[in-house]
């Protein structure tokens, strides 16, 4: 006779989708507002999927995103929960702290004054 363990209940299992919390969105939208004011960005999109939450940034509405800010909980213990990915798919920065990861995009605001 073998004993079988019951399947895990739905309240214990992983969430159906990953999303940004209020604090994370506040940090991202603060940077987004500054970049819009500088004329660099014009639109954004948010995707909440099963394994990743993505904040995509666009220069114009009908094109591929310039940058993607991703949150991947499975990468939490490895390379970091957050990543900034460029238009060509290259990972620009990855880490555990969102503000630190977003610094790679804040450098775009720094310009030489003539």
What would you say this structure looks like, in words?
This protein has 114 residues and is α+β, with helices and mostly antiparallel strands. The protein has one domain (22-108). The protein is built from 2 helices and 5 strands. Strands 1-2-3-4-5 form a 5-stranded antiparallel beta sheet. α1 (22-37) runs parallel beside α2. The radius of gyration is 18 Å and the shape is globular. The mean pLDDT is 81.
Backbone shape: globular
Placed side by side, the strands forming the largest sheet appear as: 1-2-3-4-5
Largest sheet: 5 strands, antiparallel
Summed up, the domain count is 1
- Uncertain regions spanning at least 5 consecutive residues: none
State the oligomer. Answer: single chain
Task: Kindly state the percentage of residues in helix.
Answer: 10-25%
- Count of discrete alpha- or pi-helical segments spanning 4 or more residues: 2
**Terminal residue distance:** 83 Å
Average of the residue pLDDT scores: 81
Give the total of beta strands. 5
Cα-atom radius of gyration? 18 Å
Give the SSE order as H and E letters: HEEEEEH
Report the sheet-strand fraction: 15-25%
Helix vs. strand class: alpha+beta
């Amino acid at each position: 006779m073998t004993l079988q363990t019951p399947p895990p209940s739905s309240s214990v299992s992983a969430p159906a989708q990953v999303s940004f919390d209020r604090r994370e969105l506040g940090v991202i939208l603060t940077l987004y507002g500054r970049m819009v004011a500088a004329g660099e960005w014009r639109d954004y999109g948010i995707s909440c999927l099963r394994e990743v939450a993505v904040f995509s940034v666009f220069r114009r509405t009908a094109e591929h995103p310039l940058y993607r800010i991703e949150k991947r909980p499975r990468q939490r213990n490895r390379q970091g929960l957050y990543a900034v990915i460029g238009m060509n798919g290259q990972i620009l920065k990855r880490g555990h702290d969102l503000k630190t990861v977003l610094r790679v995009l804040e450098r775009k605001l720094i310009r030489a004054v003539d």
